[in-house]
Design a protein that fits this description.
Blueprint: E1 10-19, E2 22-32, E3 37-41, H1 48-55, E4 63-68, E5 71-72, H2 77-81, E6 84-87, H3 99-109, H4 114-127, H5 143-155, E7 161-165, H6 173-186, E8 191-196, H7 199-205, E9 208-213, E10 216-222, H8 223-229, E11 234-239, H9 245-249, E12 254-259, E13 264-269, H10 276-286, E14 290-296, H11 300-320
Parallel strand pairs: 3-8, 3-9, 6-7, 7-8
Antiparallel strand pairs: 1-2, 1-4, 4-5, 9-10, 11-13, 11-14, 12-13
Length: about 325
Protein backbone atom coordinates (compact mmCIF):
# COMPACT_ATOMS: atom_id res chain seq x y z
CA UNK A 1 0.00 0.00 0.00
CA UNK A 2 1.40 3.41 -0.92
CA UNK A 3 1.84 6.09 1.72
CA UNK A 4 -0.94 8.12 0.07
CA UNK A 5 -3.39 5.37 1.10
CA UNK A 6 -2.11 5.05 4.69
CA UNK A 7 -2.50 7.10 7.83
CA UNK A 8 0.90 8.09 9.23
CA UNK A 9 1.81 6.30 12.47
CA UNK A 10 3.96 9.26 13.50
CA UNK A 11 3.12 12.83 12.58
CA UNK A 12 5.29 15.66 13.90
CA UNK A 13 4.45 19.29 13.19
CA UNK A 14 6.64 22.31 13.99
CA UNK A 15 8.27 20.77 17.05
CA UNK A 16 10.40 23.00 19.30
CA UNK A 17 12.30 22.47 22.53
CA UNK A 18 14.09 25.18 24.48
CA UNK A 19 16.44 24.80 27.44
CA UNK A 20 16.48 28.29 28.87
CA UNK A 21 17.49 30.49 25.95
CA UNK A 22 18.99 27.64 23.91
CA UNK A 23 16.90 26.04 21.16
CA UNK A 24 17.73 22.31 21.16
CA UNK A 25 15.06 21.34 18.59
CA UNK A 26 14.07 23.91 16.00
CA UNK A 27 10.86 23.49 13.96
CA UNK A 28 11.07 19.74 13.34
CA UNK A 29 8.33 18.25 11.10
CA UNK A 30 7.94 14.82 9.48
CA UNK A 31 5.59 11.87 9.00
CA UNK A 32 6.39 8.16 9.29
CA UNK A 33 4.45 5.16 8.00
CA UNK A 34 4.31 1.44 8.75
CA UNK A 35 7.28 -0.41 7.30
CA UNK A 36 9.54 2.66 7.29
CA UNK A 37 12.77 2.93 9.28
CA UNK A 38 13.77 6.55 9.80
CA UNK A 39 17.37 7.30 10.72
CA UNK A 40 17.91 10.47 12.76
CA UNK A 41 21.51 11.31 12.08
CA UNK A 42 23.61 14.00 13.68
CA UNK A 43 26.61 14.75 15.89
CA UNK A 44 26.40 14.82 19.67
CA UNK A 45 24.30 17.82 20.68
CA UNK A 46 22.37 17.92 17.40
CA UNK A 47 19.01 17.45 19.17
CA UNK A 48 18.45 13.76 18.47
CA UNK A 49 17.86 12.58 22.03
CA UNK A 50 15.67 15.58 22.90
CA UNK A 51 13.56 14.85 19.80
CA UNK A 52 13.15 11.18 20.74
CA UNK A 53 12.27 11.98 24.34
CA UNK A 54 9.52 14.32 23.13
CA UNK A 55 8.26 11.68 20.69
CA UNK A 56 8.20 9.10 23.50
CA UNK A 57 6.27 11.49 25.77
CA UNK A 58 9.09 11.74 28.33
CA UNK A 59 9.85 15.41 27.61
CA UNK A 60 7.30 18.15 27.04
CA UNK A 61 7.80 20.12 23.82
CA UNK A 62 8.08 23.90 24.00
CA UNK A 63 5.88 24.09 20.90
CA UNK A 64 4.42 21.97 18.13
CA UNK A 65 2.27 18.88 17.86
CA UNK A 66 2.93 15.11 17.92
CA UNK A 67 0.43 12.45 16.82
CA UNK A 68 1.10 8.76 17.42
CA UNK A 69 -1.14 6.41 15.44
CA UNK A 70 -3.56 9.30 14.99
CA UNK A 71 -3.67 10.22 18.70
CA UNK A 72 -2.42 13.59 19.94
CA UNK A 73 0.37 12.91 22.43
CA UNK A 74 -0.38 16.03 24.51
CA UNK A 75 -4.17 15.64 24.54
CA UNK A 76 -4.28 11.89 25.21
CA UNK A 77 -0.84 10.92 26.53
CA UNK A 78 -1.72 7.49 27.94
CA UNK A 79 -3.42 6.34 24.76
CA UNK A 80 -0.63 7.67 22.55
CA UNK A 81 2.15 6.19 24.70
CA UNK A 82 0.46 2.78 24.57
CA UNK A 83 1.28 2.75 20.84
CA UNK A 84 5.01 3.37 21.45
CA UNK A 85 7.87 1.01 22.21
CA UNK A 86 10.86 2.98 23.49
CA UNK A 87 14.47 1.98 24.04
CA UNK A 88 16.43 4.87 25.56
CA UNK A 89 20.19 5.19 25.12
CA UNK A 90 20.70 3.42 28.46
CA UNK A 91 18.29 0.42 28.52
CA UNK A 92 15.95 0.48 31.55
CA UNK A 93 17.05 -2.92 32.89
CA UNK A 94 17.03 -4.45 36.39
CA UNK A 95 20.27 -6.44 36.56
CA UNK A 96 19.23 -8.58 39.55
CA UNK A 97 16.20 -9.98 37.72
CA UNK A 98 16.24 -12.85 35.27
CA UNK A 99 15.20 -12.12 31.69
CA UNK A 100 11.83 -13.81 32.27
CA UNK A 101 11.18 -11.92 35.51
CA UNK A 102 12.05 -8.61 33.92
CA UNK A 103 9.92 -9.16 30.82
CA UNK A 104 6.88 -10.23 32.87
CA UNK A 105 7.32 -7.06 34.95
CA UNK A 106 7.67 -4.93 31.79
CA UNK A 107 4.55 -6.58 30.33
CA UNK A 108 2.61 -5.50 33.42
CA UNK A 109 3.90 -1.94 33.03
CA UNK A 110 2.76 -2.00 29.41
CA UNK A 111 -0.68 -3.14 30.62
CA UNK A 112 -0.59 -6.42 28.73
CA UNK A 113 -3.55 -8.46 30.13
CA UNK A 114 -2.42 -11.09 32.64
CA UNK A 115 -3.57 -14.12 30.58
CA UNK A 116 -1.52 -12.89 27.61
CA UNK A 117 1.69 -11.90 29.40
CA UNK A 118 3.53 -15.21 29.15
CA UNK A 119 2.76 -15.51 25.44
CA UNK A 120 3.82 -11.89 24.86
CA UNK A 121 7.12 -12.49 26.68
CA UNK A 122 7.81 -15.69 24.75
CA UNK A 123 7.08 -13.94 21.46
CA UNK A 124 9.38 -11.01 22.33
CA UNK A 125 12.17 -13.38 23.39
CA UNK A 126 11.81 -15.37 20.18
CA UNK A 127 11.92 -12.26 17.97
CA UNK A 128 14.95 -10.87 19.82
CA UNK A 129 16.99 -14.07 19.93
CA UNK A 130 16.52 -14.60 23.67
CA UNK A 131 14.70 -17.92 23.56
CA UNK A 132 17.24 -19.76 25.76
CA UNK A 133 18.05 -16.79 28.02
CA UNK A 134 14.91 -16.66 30.17
CA UNK A 135 16.51 -17.93 33.39
CA UNK A 136 19.73 -15.95 33.05
CA UNK A 137 20.34 -12.98 35.32
CA UNK A 138 20.45 -9.79 33.26
CA UNK A 139 23.69 -8.71 34.97
CA UNK A 140 25.41 -11.83 33.63
CA UNK A 141 24.48 -11.14 29.99
CA UNK A 142 26.82 -9.51 27.49
CA UNK A 143 26.07 -5.93 26.52
CA UNK A 144 24.72 -7.15 23.19
CA UNK A 145 22.20 -9.46 24.85
CA UNK A 146 21.27 -6.73 27.32
CA UNK A 147 20.43 -4.53 24.33
CA UNK A 148 18.26 -7.37 23.02
CA UNK A 149 16.43 -7.50 26.36
CA UNK A 150 15.89 -3.73 26.11
CA UNK A 151 14.41 -4.13 22.64
CA UNK A 152 12.27 -7.05 23.82
CA UNK A 153 10.64 -4.91 26.52
CA UNK A 154 9.91 -2.28 23.87
CA UNK A 155 7.97 -4.70 21.63
CA UNK A 156 6.14 -6.71 24.33
CA UNK A 157 2.85 -4.89 23.77
CA UNK A 158 3.09 -5.01 19.94
CA UNK A 159 3.31 -1.22 19.51
CA UNK A 160 2.92 0.17 15.99
CA UNK A 161 5.73 2.70 16.66
CA UNK A 162 9.23 1.90 17.92
CA UNK A 163 11.84 4.45 19.03
CA UNK A 164 15.44 3.33 19.50
CA UNK A 165 18.07 5.76 20.80
CA UNK A 166 21.65 4.74 19.91
CA UNK A 167 20.83 0.98 20.09
CA UNK A 168 24.31 -0.25 19.07
CA UNK A 169 26.53 2.10 21.11
CA UNK A 170 29.29 0.22 22.96
CA UNK A 171 28.75 -3.08 21.16
CA UNK A 172 31.42 -5.15 19.43
CA UNK A 173 31.27 -5.61 15.61
CA UNK A 174 29.49 -8.97 15.78
CA UNK A 175 26.90 -7.68 18.24
CA UNK A 176 26.37 -4.59 16.07
CA UNK A 177 25.61 -6.76 13.02
CA UNK A 178 23.16 -8.87 15.04
CA UNK A 179 21.31 -5.83 16.45
CA UNK A 180 21.17 -4.20 13.01
CA UNK A 181 19.66 -7.38 11.55
CA UNK A 182 17.06 -7.38 14.35
CA UNK A 183 16.23 -3.71 13.70
CA UNK A 184 15.82 -4.37 9.98
CA UNK A 185 13.43 -7.24 10.76
CA UNK A 186 11.39 -5.16 13.23
CA UNK A 187 11.20 -2.34 10.69
CA UNK A 188 9.04 -4.48 8.43
CA UNK A 189 6.18 -4.56 10.95
CA UNK A 190 6.52 -1.21 12.72
CA UNK A 191 7.20 2.45 12.03
CA UNK A 192 10.67 2.64 13.50
CA UNK A 193 12.76 5.69 14.44
CA UNK A 194 16.45 5.09 14.97
CA UNK A 195 18.77 7.73 16.41
CA UNK A 196 22.46 7.31 15.67
CA UNK A 197 25.67 9.13 14.89
CA UNK A 198 27.13 6.00 13.24
CA UNK A 199 26.96 6.71 9.52
CA UNK A 200 27.11 3.11 8.17
CA UNK A 201 24.21 2.19 10.47
CA UNK A 202 21.88 4.46 8.52
CA UNK A 203 22.85 2.84 5.22
CA UNK A 204 22.51 -0.64 6.73
CA UNK A 205 18.98 -0.47 8.18
CA UNK A 206 17.14 2.76 7.28
CA UNK A 207 14.76 3.51 4.43
CA UNK A 208 14.67 7.24 5.18
CA UNK A 209 17.24 9.66 6.53
CA UNK A 210 17.05 12.96 8.39
CA UNK A 211 20.20 14.86 9.28
CA UNK A 212 19.97 17.18 12.28
CA UNK A 213 22.47 19.89 13.14
CA UNK A 214 22.11 22.36 16.00
CA UNK A 215 18.49 21.31 16.39
CA UNK A 216 17.51 22.00 12.76
CA UNK A 217 16.80 19.54 9.97
CA UNK A 218 19.36 19.98 7.21
CA UNK A 219 18.36 17.01 5.06
CA UNK A 220 15.33 14.74 4.77
CA UNK A 221 14.91 12.15 2.04
CA UNK A 222 14.71 8.45 1.25
CA UNK A 223 17.87 6.36 1.23
CA UNK A 224 17.60 6.39 -2.56
CA UNK A 225 17.53 10.19 -2.52
CA UNK A 226 20.59 10.18 -0.31
CA UNK A 227 22.26 7.88 -2.82
CA UNK A 228 21.75 10.50 -5.52
CA UNK A 229 23.66 13.02 -3.40
CA UNK A 230 26.44 10.48 -3.11
CA UNK A 231 26.80 10.02 -6.87
CA UNK A 232 30.21 10.56 -8.33
CA UNK A 233 31.23 13.97 -9.61
CA UNK A 234 34.95 13.24 -9.97
CA UNK A 235 37.33 10.83 -11.67
CA UNK A 236 40.85 9.82 -10.71
CA UNK A 237 43.06 9.59 -13.78
CA UNK A 238 46.23 7.51 -13.53
CA UNK A 239 48.81 7.56 -16.35
CA UNK A 240 52.38 6.50 -16.91
CA UNK A 241 53.02 10.09 -17.97
CA UNK A 242 50.55 12.65 -16.67
CA UNK A 243 49.79 15.38 -19.25
CA UNK A 244 49.89 19.12 -18.59
CA UNK A 245 46.92 20.09 -16.43
CA UNK A 246 45.91 22.81 -18.91
CA UNK A 247 45.39 20.08 -21.48
CA UNK A 248 42.94 18.38 -19.15
CA UNK A 249 41.16 21.63 -18.25
CA UNK A 250 40.23 22.05 -21.90
CA UNK A 251 37.88 19.07 -21.67
CA UNK A 252 34.20 20.03 -21.88
CA UNK A 253 32.28 19.75 -18.59
CA UNK A 254 35.36 19.75 -16.37
CA UNK A 255 35.17 22.14 -13.43
CA UNK A 256 38.60 21.62 -11.91
CA UNK A 257 41.75 19.50 -12.16
CA UNK A 258 43.95 18.61 -9.18
CA UNK A 259 47.30 16.84 -9.43
CA UNK A 260 47.57 14.11 -6.77
CA UNK A 261 51.10 12.96 -7.63
CA UNK A 262 53.28 12.57 -10.73
CA UNK A 263 51.02 9.86 -12.13
CA UNK A 264 47.52 10.74 -10.87
CA UNK A 265 45.07 13.64 -11.11
CA UNK A 266 41.53 14.22 -9.81
CA UNK A 267 39.09 15.56 -12.41
CA UNK A 268 35.93 17.21 -11.05
CA UNK A 269 33.06 17.62 -13.44
CA UNK A 270 29.56 19.07 -13.51
CA UNK A 271 26.63 16.94 -12.38
CA UNK A 272 24.99 15.22 -15.34
CA UNK A 273 28.15 15.09 -17.46
CA UNK A 274 30.19 11.93 -18.09
CA UNK A 275 33.65 12.85 -19.39
CA UNK A 276 35.26 9.42 -18.88
CA UNK A 277 35.01 8.46 -22.55
CA UNK A 278 36.45 11.79 -23.70
CA UNK A 279 39.32 11.52 -21.18
CA UNK A 280 40.12 7.96 -22.31
CA UNK A 281 40.05 9.00 -25.97
CA UNK A 282 42.36 11.93 -25.27
CA UNK A 283 44.72 9.67 -23.33
CA UNK A 284 44.97 7.26 -26.25
CA UNK A 285 45.67 10.05 -28.74
CA UNK A 286 48.25 11.68 -26.48
CA UNK A 287 49.92 8.35 -25.61
CA UNK A 288 49.78 9.12 -21.91
CA UNK A 289 50.03 5.43 -20.97
CA UNK A 290 46.58 5.21 -19.40
CA UNK A 291 46.64 2.98 -16.31
CA UNK A 292 43.28 3.73 -14.77
CA UNK A 293 40.21 5.96 -14.76
CA UNK A 294 38.23 5.48 -11.56
CA UNK A 295 35.03 7.25 -10.43
CA UNK A 296 35.07 8.65 -6.89
CA UNK A 297 31.80 8.35 -4.99
CA UNK A 298 30.89 10.57 -2.07
CA UNK A 299 30.57 8.74 1.22
CA UNK A 300 27.70 9.41 3.60
CA UNK A 301 30.30 11.01 5.86
CA UNK A 302 31.27 13.46 3.09
CA UNK A 303 27.62 14.40 2.51
CA UNK A 304 27.15 14.90 6.24
CA UNK A 305 30.28 17.06 6.55
CA UNK A 306 29.30 19.16 3.50
CA UNK A 307 25.82 19.83 4.90
CA UNK A 308 26.95 20.68 8.44
CA UNK A 309 29.90 22.77 7.25
CA UNK A 310 27.65 24.79 4.94
CA UNK A 311 25.16 25.26 7.78
CA UNK A 312 27.92 26.43 10.13
CA UNK A 313 29.09 28.94 7.53
CA UNK A 314 25.56 30.33 7.09
CA UNK A 315 25.10 30.53 10.87
CA UNK A 316 28.39 32.42 11.24
CA UNK A 317 27.41 34.87 8.51
CA UNK A 318 24.04 35.41 10.18
CA UNK A 319 25.70 35.98 13.52
CA UNK A 320 28.12 38.54 12.09
CA UNK A 321 25.27 40.31 10.32
Amino acid sequence: MSNEMQTPLVQVENLYRFYGGRCAVNNLSFSLYKGEVLGLLGPNGAGKTSSLQMLAGNLAPSGGRIRIDGVDLLDEPLKAKAAIGYLPEVPPLYPDLTVDEYLVYAAALHRVPTPRRRAACDSAKDRCGLKDMGRRLIRNLSKGFQQRVGIAQAILHSPPVMILDEPTVGLDPIQIREIRALIAELGKEHALILSTHILPEVQAVCSRVQILHKGRMLFADTLAGLGERMETTSLVLECRKLPALDELRALEGLQSVEALDEHRARLRFATGTEPAEAVASLAMKGKWGLRGLSPEYKSLEQVFVELTTADDAQTDVGTVA
